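User: Hand in any protein.

Assistant:
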Amino acid sequence: MTKSHKAKKAKKQKKQKDSLSQQVSQSLISSSSSDEDKRIKPLDDESYKRIKKEVFLVVDSEMNTVYQINDRLTWAAQKHDVITKLLPPLKRKINKKYKVTGAEIIKMLQRCHRSRHRVNNIGNQGPRAVINDSRRKLKNTAMNNKKKRRRRAVDFMMQGGNKYIKRYPKKDLSKILNNSGYYSEEWEETDDGTTATARTAAASTSAA
């Protein structure tokens, strides 16, 4: 058997194993769900964010002695234990105040773990990787804030019936506002109206 055939066979076996693991996990979640779960409405964005904060708080405090999700391990490696050990008591605790399904709680936990697992992996790569990741986060935050400001400005102009804005369909405006290509770093405007290029030039003149 050639190396390529062995690689294909190994890949196929891994895919089958992952599929089986997924089926088992879904079966466990379904078995832990009650008839009440089926009557619970899906969470809207605001409810999801609010409940998610409470879930994380409970997991990191009260559920700490029940089961701790390991940031160093992959989600797949501990998903079975999360569903069988952590989910039942956590769900009972959360549903005293809110109405949320086990599947929604698992989704919250998985997203939290993915973020923490990534941070752990970056930390293992050394100080330089940590610094670069911090810069990336700051850059993304600044970009998202700029997008929000421009969306608010466009909404205001549309409500005021601005003739230039009205020329564009809402779908096209949405594409422009969501396209990072329209947010050039070089000509990035700050709240005081200056640009990155202007600040750089001023700094160079000052230094000279």
User: Anything to note?
Assistant: Residues 185-208 have pLDDT under 50 and may be disordered. The two ends are 70 Å apart (CA to CA). Residues 127-159 form the longest helix (33 residues).
